[in-house]
Amino acid sequence: MEKEITFILNNQSVSVQTDTMRRLLDVLRDDLGITGTKEGCGEGECGACSVLLNGKLVNSCLIPVGSIEGDEVLTIEGFKLTKRFTVLEAAFAEAGAVQCGFCTPGMLMAAEALLTHNPKPEEAEIRDAISGNLCRCTGYNMIVEAIQIAGQRGDGLW
To answer: In the chain, at which residue ranges do the beta strands (DSSP E only) sit?
Structure first.
């Protein structure tokens, strides 16, 4: 069923006329040109499509766009405009936590979700927080280290 859906995307109100059962991922990429959110598996297993929905980390490939009327969606494009992103980006670069970059937007969104709720996470908490995000290049040790660095340097930001 096609309907106009209005929601907040990266702090701006947007409206799309679309089938309510389309995936949020497809609306973001195809209709709104938000391409930092990637499609990996299309089944909610890899985390490449991770966004924050009302502050909670979700896989946008599993969310029907009709279910987000009036909600707030933050993608990597909106997150990159924040000071917290700058701290995470520098930490990921320093720890060597980026290689091909395909998983990086989802990993950064998972890190943001974690650090927002727990600015000084232990290693096990970090591993749990990123467990829904797959990386085939870098390996998780460097990503964990990057999130630890960001937590230390981002004192007061989260």
So the answer is: 2-9, 12-19, 50-53, 56-59, 72-74
Angle at 24 between CA 4 and CA 127, to 5 degrees: 150
Structure tokens at 9: 């995307």
Residues 129 and 114 sit within 8 Å (Cβ to Cβ): yes
Question: What tokens does 5 get?
Answer: 């859906």
The answer to whether the predicted template modeling score (pTM) of the entire model surpasses 0.90 is yes
pLDDT digits (tens, 9 = 90+) for 71-83: 999 999 999 999 9
Backbone angles phi, psi at 120, to 5 degrees: -130, 65
Tens-digit pLDDT profile for residues 11-38: 999 999 999 999 999 999 999 999 999 9
